[in-house]
Amino acid sequence: MAPDPDAALMVAFQGGDEAAFRALFEKHGRATMAFCQRFVKDAARAEELTQDVFLKLHTGADRYQPSARFTTFLYRIATNHCLNEVRRGEYRARPEIDPDSEDGSPLDPDALAGPAATPEEEARGNALSRDVEAMLSRLPESQRAAFVLARFEGLPYEEIALVLGTTVPSVKSLVHRATVSAARALESWSGEGAEA
Q1: CATH T-level assignment (fold) for domain 110-188
Q2: Alpha helices (H) in the chain, listed in sequence order
Q3: Can you tell me the mean pLDDT for 167-190?
Q4: What is the pLDDT at residue 107?
C-alpha cells in the first residue's frame, strides 16, 4: 500500500505541528461538509457539524494509529457524529433544500448544473438534487451511511467496513439494498438521458 500523506500529516500533528492539522482541514474540510450535508440537508448545520468533526479529530488525535488510512479515521468520526445528529430526529421532517435559496453557502455539493447551464438544465438539476436528497433521507441510517460513503465519497468496501465497524459482506448488503431503493425512488429519471 502506498504511503498515506494525510497519515503523515496526522502523525506530525500528534507531535505538536498545528500547521499539519490546518493542512488536513484545508484538504478535507469541504468534502467533510458535503458529507455532513447529505445527512442533515442544511448547509449551515453541516458547517457546524464539520467544525464539530474537526474538533473531535483535534482532541482525539492521540487515538489515531498510523496503520489506518487517515480518511478512514476521519469518516468514522464524521459518520458517527452525523448519525447521532440524525437520531435526534430534527432532520426527518425538515423540508428539502430550497434550490433557489441564497444563503451564501460556499458549498453546494449537489449542484448538477455547471455555470453555463441553461435555465431548463438548471431546473432539471435542481429537481434531481431534491429527489436524491429525499431518497437519502428515507433510507435507514446504516444504509444511508454505507451508500453515501460508497457512491458519493468513493470509499472502497473495506474502508467503509472499518468506518462503520462492520464486515465487508455487511457493507455490500447495505449498499445493495440502498441502491435498489435509490433505483426505485429515482425510476422516473431513468429515461431522461435517452429523451434528450
Answers
A1: Arc Repressor Mutant, subunit A (1.10.10)
A2: 5-14, 18-40, 43-59, 70-87, 119-138, 141-147, 157-164, 168-185, 192-195
A3: 86
A4: 38
